[in-house]
Design a protein that fits this description.
Strand order of the largest sheet: 4-5-6-7
Number of strands: 39
Strand content: over 45%
Shape: flat
Number of helices: 1
C-alpha cells in the first residue's frame, strides 16, 4: 500500500485550524493544458499536463495524474495519496479511496483508516460508508465511528445520503438510519429504492410502501413500472400517465401527461412538457422556467443550469431564476454549485453564487 501516512498526518494536522466552508470548487485548464483549481475566489496550480481522471466535491477534488498517482486537493494544498491509480470516490462531503485492501476517508481534516482488510463490497453516500471486510463482516462508518452492521456479507443493498437498506442472510429487510439498525419487514421486497430520508418498496398487496423519516407508511398506491426517488420525495407515472410526486406525506400531480424529457436528481425534478414548456419542481413547488425547450440543462442539489433558446446560460438556484451568462455559450460544466464555461479559447469563466470571474 503506497500511502504517505507520515506526510499526510503532518499536513492535515496543519489544517485542523483551517475553516473551509467553500462551496465553489471547480477545475479548469489553460491554453497549454495546465490544470488549475478554483476554490472560493482563489486559484491553485495542480498539474502541468492533462490528468487521467478527476472527481469534484464541495470542498475538495481528487484526480489521477498523468504519472498515475492519486492526488487530493483540499484546503489550498495538494497531497499525494497513493503512488498508484487507486480506486477513489467523491461525494459532496467526503473523499474516499481504496488501495488494494486499504480503505480510507477524508474526515475532520485528516485521512482516517476505515479498514486494512476491505473486500469488494462498498456503498457510500454523503454521511454513510458501508463495506465488507475479508472476514465477511459488514461494517458501517457513521458520525466518525466504525461499527459492525452484520456478522456476514450482504448482497442486495442500496444507499441514500443518510440511509442504507438491505436484505440480510435470513431474508429480513433492514434499514440503517441515524445510527440505528432496524428490521422493517420479515420478507424480501420485490423491489426497493433509497434516497435521503426515504425508502420505497413493494408490500405484499402490490402497493408502494414507505419508510419515511423513521416511520413506516402504508399506501394504496399500486405499483407502477416507472418510478424514481429523490431527496425526501418519490415520483412515478400513474395509470393515466400523469407525473405524480409523493412529498411529505402528500401526493401532488405535477404534470397531466408524460413529458418529452425528465431529469430527477438530488432534490430537483426538471422536465419539458409536450408543449415545449420547461419546468422545475423543487421542495413541493412547480415553477415554469421558459415557454420553450432549453438547448440543454444540468441538475445538481438546489440548482438547475440551462441554455435558453439562443444559448445563453440561466439557472434555477435555490428556488429563484437567475442569469449566469448574458453571452452565448457553446458548452458548460456544473460542479455542485459552480458553473464553468469558455467564451474565448484559453479562458475559463467561473460562476458561483451570483459572481463570475475569468481565468
Amino acid at each position: 500500500m503506497y500511502f504517505r501516512k507520515s506526510v499526510l498526518i503532518f499536513f492535515f494536522l496543519l489544517l485542523l485550524s483551517f475553516n473551509c466552508f467553500s462551496q465553489c470548487v471547480a477545475p479548469y485548464s489553460d491554453l497549454n493544458g495546465q490544470l488549475f483549481v478554483y476554490d472560493n475566489g482563489e486559484t491553485t496550480f495542480l498539474e502541468a499536463v492533462p490528468v487521467k481522471s478527476i472527481k469534484v466535491g464541495k470542498k475538495s477534488l481528487a484526480y489521477v495524474s498523468n504519472a498515475t498517482r492519486l492526488r487530493l486537493y483540499y484546503g489550498g494544498k495538494t497531497y499525494t495519496i497513493a503512488e498508484n491509480a487507486a480506486d477513489y470516490y467523491m461525494t459532496d462531503n467526503w473523499f474516499l479511496f481504496r488501495n488494494f485492501s486499504y480503505l480510507g476517508v477524508l474526515y475532520n481534516n485528516e485521512i482516517k483508516t476505515l479498514d486494512k482488510l476491505a473486500d469488494e463490497g462498498l456503498w457510500f453516500s454523503d454521511s454513510l460508508i458501508v463495506w465488507t471486510s475479508t472476514l465477511n463482516e459488514t461494517k458501517v462508518f457513521y458520525n466518525g465511528v466504525i461499527s459492525r452492521m452484520e456478522a456476514w456479507q450482504i448482497d442486495n443493498a442500496q444507499i441514500g445520503d443518510n440511509i442504507f437498506a438491505y436484505n440480510d442472510i435470513s431474508g429480513n429487510f433492514k434499514v440503517y438510519y441515524h445510527g440505528e439498525l432496524k428490521t422493517i419487514e420479515s420478507y424480501i421486497p420485490a423491489f426497493f429504492r433509497v434516497d435521503r430520508d426515504i425508502v420505497v418498496y413493494a408490500d405484499y398487496n402490490g402497493n408502494f410502501k414507505f419508510y419515511y423519516h423513521g416511520q413506516t407508511i402504508e399506501t394504496s398506491m399500486p405499483l407502477m413500472p416507472d418510478y424514481w426517488t429523490g431527496e425526501d420525495f418519490f415520483a412515478y407515472y400513474n395509470m393515466q400517465g400523469q407525473l405524480i410526486v409523493w412529498y411529505k406525506g402528500e401526493e401532488q400531480t405535477v404534470l397531466q401527461d408524460r413529458p418529452k424529457d425528465l431529469t430527477i436528481k438530488e432534490n430537483i425534478i426538471a422536465f419539458t412538457d409536450k408543449g415545449n414548456n420547461f419546468y422545475v419542481w423543487y421542495k413541493g413547488k412547480l415553477s415554469l422556467m421558459e415557454r420553450f425547450a432549453p438547448l440543454s440543462y444540468k441538475v445538481d442539489n438546489d440548482i438547475c443550469v440551462y441554455q435558453e433558446q439562443y444559448g445563453r446560460l440561466k439557472a434555477f438556484y435555490f428556488g429563484k431564476q437567475i442569469n449566469v451568462s448574458d453571452q452565448i455559450v457553446n458548452s458548460y460544466k456544473l460542479y455542485n454549485y459552480t458553473v464553468t464555461y469558455s467564451l474565448i479559447q484559453g479562458e475559463t469563466s467561473i460562476w458561483c453564487d451570483g459572481k463570475t470571474t475569468v481565468h
